[in-house]
């Protein structure tokens, strides 16, 4: 049975578990807050769902609970940081602090990271500059390769996601968070859990035939959006978030679902762009609201009841889950109970 | 009949025509060079093909031949420029100069432009930072709306393209240049010219049914890559390249194919990112070559003879056309002859 858990309750549990796994209170609180935001925002495969895996990785020596994050390269508007093999949440929080501080003066800043790990949903980091009146843009190398180059069958590319957050006025901020594949691999796993068939277009097998049985996903190849275009985007994002930072990309990417002990050397980057470097921020936010209204007012295709904006579902889901709690399915609750017993902490 | 014209011959003709339309020799040379590069690179719908339209726009007062380009906002790593309603080629060349000069110090620079016009293919500008050992990233608001928001039928969005260029060593640079729609509108027009049917997936009509007759394109809606994802990308790119710069986006976009007299207020932005701010440039270029080799060496789907990299066709096409000339079809040659007669200049 699904149980609805208040955000605060979940946040405290996650912090408790991370603390028991060796994280300092400050690090545990920071990471618990971001993981809870993932769940509040509806990214169910990227929040507390990942907690047992993160703790397994810390215990197996694949990830450092309290990393020393070092600035390796520094220019007025750029930095390259070494995440000390810490959780991506902590590494990219630091990257965001640096990027925002720089962009206040320079107008824009680009901060890359190497020696990091899975950071949860991309929107968390793109959204960080919003509070400062800035636009955020985040790209990551995905934590497992499930896609070949276009026309190929070797798994050399990941879902390499991009997220962009743009401030608005009365409307929710525009927040795009998307994989460069038609379906994120998490959606495949969800379909498998539910015994559902996948739509044609998500995956093919190594003969090029559509693969719709998610139980056979390990034989399959994720398809990029727009065919060669999505392949190109995934490749470019990998070069910028991985190769340029001295982080893993291509054949070097470790499948973090299959292997909890190896260092992943995950790469990401974050751009903070100060709206005030271009125009009056209030005027800009009003203009974003106007674009929002234009899209909403469009005539619609038959059967379509509403035009949606990127970030709208996120805002609705967060409001709803703050009010009624985060729905956690029974199998996940069982895993969290087991984890709590293992760690010797109070359960959720 | 198709005639093959040497790049130098084409460049001189275009410069002659632009000069006769009132451009200074320096401006005409700059624009002719970029337009010829478009043709050399295989972007046949974005090079000399556009010359009669550009000159029509200058004569109709819709575009200024010799614009005064002004810096409106300036920070260490950002600038907003007013293109003085000049050709996008001249405006974004200036933007690239500013971005490259800033990025040499700051590591990255983001330069936006308003009051610009169609600039030809996106790759031209993304490629400009390459010569300085930098990565380039260019985004534009397209010059006509052919796409609705996802689920809608009002034409509020354009093909808003992105181009990214990344330096390599022995291999051609990685150059991605893509519309956020499945097909660029130019491909629809090409299909119409040839009397061909469009594949399902390029366009739908206002009932949501596939539209495959390119002669009916004016009733149709271009489809985004990846459904809502491509819609989201197009929207985000429009907000960043248009709205943030005080340029047209959404309902404000003028269809420059249908209207040569109205000011389009086209917006674009260019990012220059200095590789040396992250790692040794030679080491980076070698790493890009290695990724190139990894993709090439992938096993292939049945029937696939070669894995392609973004920018590979561009490099091959340029080499081939430098050797054997640019193929110009008879109808285009006729239009260029008519233009030459109108301008009182020597024909091509």
Describe the structure.
- 2 copies of one chain form a homodimer.
- The first copy, chain A, is α+β, with helices and mostly antiparallel strands.
- Chain A has 3 domains: 1-60 and 312-348, Hypothetical Oxidoreductase Yiak, Chain: A, domain 1, CATH 1.10.1530.10; 67-181 and 225-278, Ribosomal Protein S8, Chain: A, domain 1, CATH 3.30.1370.60; 183-223, Wheat Germ Agglutinin (Isolectin 2), domain 1 (2-Layer Sandwich), CATH 3.30.60.
- Helix content of chain A is 37%, strand content 16%.
- Chain A has 10 helices and 12 strands.
- The first copy, chain A, has helices spanning 7-20, 25-40, 51-59, 88-106, 123-126, 185-194, 228-241, 281-296, 312-324, 330-343; strands at 3-5, 70-74, 78-82, 108-116, 134-140, 162-166, 174-178, 203-204, 210-211, 221-222, 266-274, 326-328.
- In chain A, the strands form 3 sheets. In chain A, strands 2-3-4-11-5-6-7 form a 7-stranded mixed β-sheet, sandwiched between helices. Chain A has a 3-stranded antiparallel β-sheet with strand order 9-8-10, with no helix packed on it. A two-stranded antiparallel ribbon of chain A has the order 1-12.
- In chain A, β2 (70-74) and β3 form a beta hairpin.
- In chain A, α1 (7-20) packs antiparallel against α2 (25-40).
- The longest helix of chain A has 19 residues, at 88-106.
- The radius of gyration of chain A is 20 Å and the shape is globular.
- Chain A starts with a strand and ends in a 5-residue tail after the last helix.
- Chains A and B meet through α4, β4, β7, α7 and β11 of A and α4, β4, β7, α7 and β11 of B.
- Chains A, B: One of its GO terms (molecular function) is oxidoreductase activity.
- Chains A, B: Keywords: Oxidoreductase.
